Amino acid sequence: MSLDPNDWATRLLELGLAVQTRVVSLVRSAFATGSNSLADAVAEEGGDRIYRIDREVEATIEQVISSWPESCQPVLLIAEGMGDDGRMLFGDPEQQPRWRLIIDPIDGTRMLMFDKRSAWFLAAVCPDKGEATTLTDSVASVMVELPPSKQTLADAFVASTGKPTRGLRFRVDASQPPLISEAVDFFVRPSRKVDLQDGFATVLSMFPGTRLLAAELAERIAERCGVMTSLPTVFDDHYISCGGLMYQLMTGRDLCSLDLRPQFNQILGRSAQDRFIESHPYDLAGLLAAQNAGVIMTNGFGKPLNAPLDVHTGVDWCGYANSHIRHLVEPIVQEWLTEHGIPGK
After folding, report:
1. 0.85 surpassed by pTM
2. For 1-16, how does the pLDDT look when each residue is reduced to its tens digit (9 = 90+)?
3. Full DSSP string of 158-183
4. 67, 112, 213, 280: which has the fewest C-beta neighbours closer than 10 Å?
5. How far apart are CA 204 and CA 193, in angstroms?
6. How far apart are alpha carbons 280 and 312 in whole angstroms?
7. How far apart are CA 15 and CA 63, in angstroms?
């Protein structure tokens, strides 16, 4: 018997809550003792650096998935930290996978390992279509907040095909995962603002290398949208987590987030071997949750956002709170890219 999308959403939420409990325990213990070993770099895999805190949750993920029933297997896990190819098969190795599961166990490691801000567990599951399987094949997706040590409540978002995204709030527990039945539902809706005035609109420049280009585009947007004044009337927030940025769009906090680092690398002439860090498909595993909440998600050229299920492909994405904000900002982005020699695709 095969799981339906709602059953899968519950499985993914339970997995995310198990990771949340493990992470909360690690972070509270580390900062109660003044230790910073969670920030030790241990490897470079899947186009990113792996820290000790990342390694600490892998056993939890493997344990939970291994306990899943036959209806969930064989399942091919695709995740940051699972070796250079980021793949691990659960179930009979003689059978073809029935499902592909893409996870970012801790999206926002760099903030959480210093106890600065929440990270996010992101997951999506797709029926297996071989290497042609993409994020748009997702039938269920979850985003689970991984909070810093002082936080006592945390949010989660659960989505399955054809249903609005559900927002859930849990009391944080460092000893055992919270019960889904004890969660409190909350309303999920992006902003309805029609301009950028006194709102958050961010061109991402999380890391060195592409910041000058991001700033140039951000200035162009502010100028064209009439918010280039002596007083700050548009703000940005470089939340080092795609999940965190989607969360802010889903809950009405932000108006748009633009991650064009693949285009920035192309403008800079960076080769495949020396590209500055970009988002990867696992960073967008919450795509279905964001879309079902009403966020408009496109690629950098305004086309539907999609990506293969791997750990290497660079993904450009733009998230808009509503169609008004998209129609205001997207033409400016297209013009700027064209001026820099990046044709639409």
Report:
1. yes
2. 467 999 999 999 999 9
3. EEETTSPPEEEEEE--SSSPPPGGG-
4. 67
5. 21
6. 6
7. 10
